[in-house]
Amino acid sequence: MAEVTILPQVRAFLERSNGQFINGQRVTSEGGETIAVANPATNEVIAHVAPATNAEIDAAVETAHHAFHGAWANTTPAQRGLLLNRLADLMIAHREELAQLETLSSGKLITLSRAFEVDYAVAFLRYYASWTTKIEGRTVALSLPSATGEKYTGLTLREPLGVVAGIVPWNFSIMIAVWKFGSALACGCTAVLKPSEVTPLTMLRVAELAIEAGIPPGVLNVVNGRGPQAGHALMTHPEIAKITFTGGMETGAAIGTAAMQSGFKRVTLELGGKNAAAFLPDTSPDRTVDGIIEAGFLNSGQVCASAERCYVHRSRIDDVAERLGKRLAAFAPGDPMDDESQFGPLASRAHFEKVTGSFARARARGARFIHGGGAFDIPGCYIQPTAVLARSQDDELMRQEVFGPVVSLLVYDSVEELVTLMNDSPYGLTASLWTNDLSQALRLIPRIEAGTVWINMHNYIDPAMPFGGAKGSGIGREFGSAFIEHFTEIKSVIMRY
Ligand code: NAD
Asked: Which of 41, 114, 234, 266 is the most buried (most CB within 10 A)?
């Protein structure tokens, strides 16, 4: 056991009154309803957060609007890059504090909190910071001749959109928030973030660090509260120019509709997935099992890019199922605050109930569990790592996103059948192909309906590679230079001389 000692500043943060972070200051309305934050490893309530009132949401958007036209507009692109990098430095300096806050509220293994919520988040922030000085328009050769001999010149300007509402899920509460505000701020926009009600704490601390870094008050604000109340009020506010949302498909549909109905706000939607991992017949059973574990069990499966559908050739299925069952049996649940733990709880009691409910329905319909299929018999939201032999593509576990530590294995016979099965889903976020035959993989890539296709790997993201969904998994791309299009508007200028 290598239990991590909770830092005094983390204890103090949990004990204080937390609510919103607006115009560089903590704001907490006293006396109203509070949202309880529970540690899913123990189910103990560790903090309470006051949800934002409508007046607080108005204040957050107004201050962001003011900063957009004032303090942030008055910084040069180079200064903006420097300030984002300073925030990245401070996040590294506060690495353990941020990681502990995240682990205590989401149950994420402390090793993953350090790696993803700080180190990866910082890598993304620095990547966005590196773009501030490279956002450019173009000069354009005009197509139509001038009738009078006068000359025309065309140029395009890329202008920041304005105030961005970033609506964030609970599975990576800092990293996904950085995807939102890092890209917005780099383009010259300002931001109001709405974290998930499950993980409302960590971004409050990051916003404080932003002030310490010298980012002007009002540029980065955080409002808490439930989606249909605080989230809805924020995103439909008239001064919001753009909504960037990560979360479930149904919520995404509601947000897309509201964005159009409240003034045609620009919108980026990063939604769920029911992602496929396909193991071609030349992949050995051991490599297949390694691949399934890589694809399906990171962060107890609470990763939008995770594979929950695994396609295994008929000639390999018995071997793979037997070996996978043995490997999963060795996953021991551990305290996420222990450096040596390998397998943590789900993020909340509500999510635990949702996942166990889907297992119960599958069992009632005669599902064949290779391993798992229920909760560990210990306190906390611990679900067994689970693998199922699917009977058909129509099983609920093959169609609906569970967002937990579960994979369904389905047999295929031919590569043609495999492609059809992989594409048979309303989602299209990610997919992976596992094979030694790279030329076959390259021929298959154009036929796969997904925003990201991995070859011999799964769950790898990089700031330089555009990420987002095909089909029902969303609209738009984050990362790479693609983000610039989503936070700026092109203005065409045509001049006669
Ligand atoms: P969710 O859709 O329930 O909530 C996401 C956020 O939206 C939360 O902050 C919530 O408060 C808010 N919200 C809910 N209803 C709202 C409404 N009517 N108006 C405005 N805001 C509203 O999702 P979740 O359970 O927090 O996260 C899990 C989902 O997120 C999964 O489907 C997962 O696949 C997806 N996800 C996608 C990506 C990606 O990059 N594509 C990354 C991580 C998670």
From this structure: 234
Q: Domain check: are 238 and 372 in the same one?
A: no
Pocket test for ligand 1, best of 304, 399, 401 (most atoms within 8 A of CB): 304
487 and 357 part of one domain: no
CATH of the domain at 78: 3.40.605.10
Residue 497: pLDDT band (50, 70, 90) is confident
Cα(382) to centroid(ligand 1), Å: 21
- Structural contact between residues 122 and 88, judged by C-beta atoms closer than 8 angstroms: yes
171 and 38 co-located in one domain: yes
Residues 296 and 202 in one domain: no
Please choose from 49, 246, 299 the residue to mutate so as to test ligand 1's pocket, defined by most ligand atoms within 8 A of CB: 246
Residue 459, ligand 1, Cβ within 6 A:
no
Long-range contacts, stretch 435-444, CB < 8 angstroms, 24+ apart:
435/279, 435/280, 435/282, 435/283, 436/282, 436/283, 437/280, 437/282, 440/280, 440/415, 441/280, 444/415, 444/419
Q: Is the CB of 106 under 6 A from ligand 1?
A: no
Ligand 1 centroid from CA 125, angstroms: 21
What integer best gives the mean pLDDT of the chain?
97
Q: Quickly count: other Cβ atoms within 10 Å of residue 25's Cβ.
A: 13
As a whole number of angstroms, the distance between CA 259 and CA 149 comes to: 45
Taking each helix axis from N to C end, the angle separating 317-329 and 285-296, rounded to the nearest 10 degrees, works out to 50
Q: What is the pTM of this model?
A: 0.97
270 included as an active-site residue: yes
Ligand 1 midpoint to CA 251 (Å): 6
pLDDT of residue 1: 60
Tokens at 457, concatenated: 């790997």
Torsion-angle region of residue 455: left (phi > 0), alpha (psi -120 to 50) or beta? beta
ipTM of predicted complex: 0.95
Does residue 72 fall inside a structural domain?
yes
Q: Is there a single domain that holds both residue 148 and residue 286?
A: no
Residue nearest to atom 22 of ligand 1 (CA): 227
- On whether both 101 and 135 belong to a single domain, the answer is yes
Tens-digit pLDDT profile for residues 230-275: 999 999 999 999 999 999 999 999 999 999 999 999 999 999 999 9
Going from the Cα of 249 to the center of ligand 1, the distance in angstroms, rounded, reads 8
Query: Out of 97, 102, 117, 270, which one is annotated catalytic?
Result: 270
